[in-house]
Design brief:
6-stranded parallel beta sheet, 6 strands, alpha/beta
Length: 222
């Protein structure tokens, strides 16, 4: 019998770690198309903003070939802890990064980065060992090819890391459409083109329903 326990993401107990989404490292990502991968990273970042999740940014040896952090991420989180690691490959080996994570006060860590099998896996496994519940966002983390990706996923999942995608993260954090229909719909529409069609249809239907509701009392009075 399975011993798996559903450990649900909780927006009141989760933080987001964006690890080494750097302009140089982006060129190494081959398991996703460049445009799709960037969209996924920004979707996760948008979710972090939407749910007001504490977010920590870090880079590795950015003065070297890895390059600076994605400018869009820095612009989205101007006040977030930003840890430019001088050389440590595993972010968890950097004391300032570990302190920044601890300072969030959250026990669930949502992690994404480049590359999946190194920067993400090392950080995720170290955080797991430190007692955190770890969720790795697979489609906002990229690497050289699918064989590297699957090896990393297997290594992490066997250790107890939960593998998720950005869409499932959003839905699990939100829990119930009624919490904010427009907010959730617009967030999804910003990164899933077909959701724009859904939201346009929803807005039109809601407008018609509202107009009909307003018209009914008037007809009754007449």
């Amino acid at each position: 019998m399975s011993t798996f326990k559903y450990n649900r993401l909780d927006k009141d107990n989760a933080a987001v770690l964006l690890v080494d989404h750097q302009t140089g490292l982006f060129s190494l990502v081959r398991d996703f198309g460049a445009a799709d991968f960037k969209n996924n990273v920004l979707a996760l970042a948008g979710a972090a903003k939407f749910f007001k999740l504490p977010t920590v940014l870090t880079t590795s040896f950015e003065q070297g070939p890895n390059g600076p952090i994605m400018p869009e991420l820095k612009a989205l989180f101007p006040e977030a802890p930003y840890i430019p690691r001088p050389g440590q490959i595993n972010a968890w080996d950097n004391e300032d990064f570990v302190k920044a994570v601890a300072a969030t006060g959250k026990k669930q860590l949502i992690i994404a980065g480049i590359v999946t099998d190194v920067c993400v896996a090392f950080c995720a496994l170290s955080a797991l060992e430190a007692g955190y519940d770890v969720f790795v966002v697979t489609d906002a983390s990229g690497t050289f090819d699918e064989s590297c990706r699957y090896a990393a996923w297997d290594r992490m999942s066997r250790a107890g890391v939960q593998l998720v995608n950005w869409f499932s993260v959003v839905c699990e954090l939100h829990r119930d459409w009624r919490n904010d229909i427009e907010g959730l719909g617009n967030l999804l529409a910003g990164f899933i083109p077909d959701y724009k069609n859904l939201m346009t249809s929803y807005a039109a239907t809601a407008s018609i329903a509202s107009a009909s509701h307003e018209k009914a009392p008037a007809l009754a009075r007449s």
